[in-house]
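Example complex used in Figure S2.
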Amino acid sequence: MMIAASPWSLHSRLERDTMSVGDLPLSRLLAVIDANFPWVVLVPRRAGASEIIDLAEPEQAQLMIEIARVASALKSITGCDKLNVAAIGNVVPQLHIHVVARRVGDAAWPKPVWGAVPAKPYAAGELEPFITALRDTIGFA
Amino acid sequence: MMIAASPWSLHSRLERDTMSVGDLPLSRLLAVIDANFPWVVLVPRRAGASEIIDLAEPEQAQLMIEIARVASALKSITGCDKLNVAAIGNVVPQLHIHVVARRVGDAAWPKPVWGAVPAKPYAAGELEPFITALRDTIGFA
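Predicted assembly (282 residues):
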């Protein structure tokens, strides 16, 4: 007898802290609501996955394709000095990969962004153009 | 006329802070000399690469294979609670990917390890068994 797996759903903390950009073949792309940094998160839509190695090998390969696609778009949109890419998940166990555009002198530079400074709200009308630029550059179907 | 690329060599800071474990097809694997955390770094042997997206696509795919191989070994050796995988490089520009075995209650938990606590020296004879376990588990040729 087949046991139906629980369906995937976005962790409540990621839901609260982000806006949805769109779905890539494996992952949901989210924009983090923190005006300190252009910051997105990829969340593979696989229920129960907490580590990259919880994904099957073809999914790991697809994840790298999506990381590169999103990182290239973020670099092209922001002209950043450095990209930071990380799967940490010590607080939110659902597998998610941060892709952050860093600039020399930004609010946390040269430290990593996690826990460095309080999130800064976006001014009205500032987050939407970022999301639109991501959608246009990544080329969501 | 072809311009010869500079040969790859390990960044002096990585050289100073780590011990070599061995070479995978793309990356050199290093063990970080910090007894606070079982912590390794993968350094793709590609001169001038600073970002994952500086690698060609087949190299990006190979990097994911090596990340997964090393992460699985680290989890199996340490029985850790969480893996942290990250390409940051704000301080050392040479592309390098951290793979850290985290345990609830470790010296930085639940914060990321970078800049959290000063590096702790290994006691005599403690680092070598870790390196040997990595070599045996990963199965270097």
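The longest helix of chain A spans residues 57-78. The CA atoms of residues 19 and 27 of chain A lie 14 Å apart.
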